[in-house]
Amino acid sequence: MPRAQLTVHTTESGPVIDRHIFGHFAEHLGRCIYDGLWVGENSSVPNIRGWRSDLVAALKQIRIPNLRWPGGCFADDYHWRDGIGPREKRPRRVNAHWGGVVESNAVGTHEFLDLCEQIGCEPYLAGNVGSGSPRELREWVEYCNATAGTLAEERATNSRRDPWKVRLWGVGNETWGCGGNMTVEYYANEYRRFATYTRDFPNAPLYRIASGARNDDYHWTEVMMREAFKGPIGGPILQGLSLHYYTVPGDWPPKHPATGFDHAGWNWVMALGWKMDEYVRGHRAAMDRYDPAEKTALVVDEWGSWYAVESGTNPGFLYQQQTVRDAVLASLTLNIFINHCERVRIANLAQLVNVLQAVALTEEGGGRLVLTPTWDVLALYAAHQDARRLSVHSDAATLKHDGMPYPAVSATASLAADHTITVTVCNTDPAAPAEITLTLVDRAPVVADARVLASADLTACNTIAQPRAVTTRPLDGVRVSGQQISVSLPPGAVASLRFS
Ligand code: AHR
Q: Which of 401, 373, 378 shows the shortest CA–CA distance to 492?
C-alpha cells in the first residue's frame, strides 16, 4: 500500500500565494456565456440584471478572484464597440471560431463588468491584437478607466458614471495561432506598440499581460523577455507573460472520453497534468535570465482538461462532463502553481461554465445547475488564497505512465493570517489508498476541519438526476499524536486538513 511521509515546516513561512492563481475564464464559446451564466433579464431563471443568481452564489462560495473575458480565440475577433449602447441596436456577428453561431452582443462591457461586481471578483479583459488596432484597444481602456473626456461621457450616457478602473488587460491571445499566426519576433514588436498605447488613467494603473507560449515553447518566452521585459526607456511594460497548457490525452482533436475511462486513462491524465510542472520550470528559467527579481509574473491564463465533446452536443461548443479524475488533476495543478507562486501569480481555469473543465454545468434552456467535482476542489483550496506558503517535504513515490513521471501523492500547505494551517493533498493512484503521515514541525496540531473528495466509481459524475454524486465529505479516521497526524486517503482522492 502506498505510503507518504509529509513534513510541514510551520515556522518557515514562504511567499504569499496570490489569490489570483485561483482565477477563471469565460469566453463567448458554446454555452458558457449565453445559456450558461447569462439568461437575460426576462428569464424565468432567477437572475440579477440577466446573470443567473444560483451561479453567482456558487462562484461567490469558492471566492473566485478574477474572471478573464471575452476569450480566448474569440477575443481577437471581438470589437468592444459592438457590445455597448442599447442592446437592440447592437450588431449581430458570426462567431467564426466557435460553432458559427450568431453572436447577439447582448453581453458586452457593461454587462460583463456588472457580473464581476456581482461576484466580487476582478475583471481581466483580453484585448484584440489579431484583428484590432492599438487605437481600438487604447480606447477600450479609456472607456473603462477614464474620469473625463468624450469616452467617459459616452460611458456615463450608457448608465455608468464612475470608471471601473480595470487593472488586468491581456494584449492578444495565442498570437502564435488563432490570435494572428505570428512569429514571436514579430509579436514582440507588436506587443511593445500596443502596450505603449494602453495607457494608465488616474488611479488606474494597468497590469498588461502579453500573449505567451504554449506548452514547452521556451523560445517564445525567451524572446518576449528579451524584447519586451524592459520598455524603450527602461520602465517595465510587461507585468505578466502568459502560458497556455491543456491536459489533452491523445491526438488533436481530442478523442479521449471524459467519463468511461480505465485505469490507464486515469494515469495518462495524471502524467500529462504533471507536465505543467516541467513547463512552468522551463518558462521560469527563461524568465529568470532577464528578470531575476521576478517582477514579471508567469500567468497561466488557460489550463484544464480537454476531452472529446459529449456525444450529441455541438462539437464547436466544447461541452464535457467531469469525474473525480478532473478533481485530482485540478489539485495536482494548483499544487504546482502554489509550489511556483513566486513567479506564477495569476492563473485561469478553462472555462467557468459548460465548457471544458468547468466548475458548473447548466441544463439547456436555462434550467437546473450542477456543480462539478472541480468546484469542490476550488472550495477546498480557497483557504490558500493570499496565505503564506509553508514548505512541504514529501517522500512520496514517483509513478510513471508511458515514461512520464508524476507523484503518487502531492501536497501543499499554507499559513493564513489567522494562524490556521491548511494542508491540501491528493492521491493520484486510482487503485490503492495512500497512507499519509503528516508532521507539523513546531506545532501542536488541533484538527479544525478535514474533508475528502473521492468516489468508489472513478467514472461517476454529477448530473441533473444526481447533482452531488461526487462531492466532499468529512475525512474520517484522522489520528493525532503529538506533532504527527496519520490518515488514509481513498484511491484517487483530494483532501484538505485545516489546523487551528
Ligand atoms: O479555451 C478554448 C480555447 O483554447 C481558447 O479560445 C483558446 O485560447 C485556446 O486555444
A: 373
Distance 248 CA to ligand 1 centre (A): 13
Query: What is the model's pTM?
Result: 0.98
Pocket of ligand 1, beta carbon within 6 A: 27, 71-73, 173-174, 302, 350-351, 356
Cα separation values, 261 from 29, 65, 427, 465, 480, Å: 26, 33, 18, 21, 37
CATH at residue 454: 2.60.40.1180
245 CA from centroid of ligand 1 (Å): 10
Q: Which segments within 70-163 are labelled E, that is strand?
A: 93-94, 102-103, 122-127
**Residues 217/176, Cβ–Cβ less than 8 Å:** yes
Q: Let me know whether 158 and 262 are in one domain.
A: yes
Report pLDDT digits (tens) over 155-166: 999 999 999 999
**Averaged over 113-121, what is the pLDDT?**
98
Closest CA relative to residue 317, chosen from 341, 351, 342, 344: 351
pLDDT at 270: 98
Residues 6+ apart with CB under 8 A from 19: 63, 65, 385, 386
d(CA 298, CA 343): 6
Give, for 441, the enclosing helix (H) or strand (E). strand 434-441
Place of cell 494515469: 267
Closest C-alpha to ligand 1, atom 6: 72
243 strand-pairing partners: 213
Cell 479609456 belongs to which residue? Answer: 142
Does the N-terminal peptide bond of residue 70 adopt cis geometry, omega within 30 degrees of 0?
yes
Domain closes at, from 385, 409, 426: 385
In angstroms, the Cα distances linking 42 to 50, 88, 120, 368 are: 8, 14, 24, 17
Query: Quick one: 315 and 449 in the same domain?
Result: no
* Domain final position from 365, 385, 405: 385
pLDDT value at residue 235: 60
